[in-house]
Amino acid sequence: MNRKDYAVMISDLRMPVINGVQLLKTVKDLNPSARTVLTTDFEYDNKLVQGFTKKNIINGLLQKPVEPHELVTEVNKQVDILKRTNK
């Protein structure tokens, strides 16, 4: 109903039921202009992440543990990109 109201979605890679990439893909399907950030504390397949980045499913990646200032910096970066692309 209000999917156009969200600017940034942050998701962990590993979650119960659905993984983070699947969630971010669903978000992008509902709102292609939303910016997405994936977090993980596990080793990840860099080629896989690059593939989802090229497909514009993942816009940012944070390796845990994430310091609060790193999270704020990444969210601000994604919001700035969104503002520039929506002009």
Question: What's the helix and strand layout?
Answer:
Layout: E1 8-12, H1 20-30, E2 35-40, H2 46-54, E3 60-63, H3 68-85
Shape: globular
Mean pLDDT score, rounded?
Answer: 90
- Rg from Cα: 13 Å
Terminus-to-terminus distance: 24 Å
| Percent in strands | 15-25%
Structural class label? alpha/beta
Question: How many strands?
Answer: 3
Q: Helix tally?
A: 3
Query: What pattern of helices and strands is seen along the backbone?
Result: EHEHEH
- Across the major sheet, the strand order is 1-2-3
Helix proportion of residues, in percent?
Answer: 40-55%
Unreliable stretches (pLDDT < 50, length at least 5) are none
Biggest sheet character: 3 strands, parallel
In words, what does this structure look like?
The chain has 87 residues and is of the alpha/beta class. It is 44% helix and 17% strand. The chain is built from 3 helices and 3 strands, in the order βαβαβα. The longest helix has 18 residues, at 68-85. The chain is globular and about 35 Å long. It starts with 7 loop residues before the first strand and ends with a helix. The mean pLDDT is 90.
Task: Give a brief rundown of this model.
This protein has 87 residues and is α/β, with parallel strands linked by helices.
Could you list some keywords that capture this structure?
single chain, 87 residues, alpha/beta, three-stranded parallel sheet, 3 strands, 44% helix
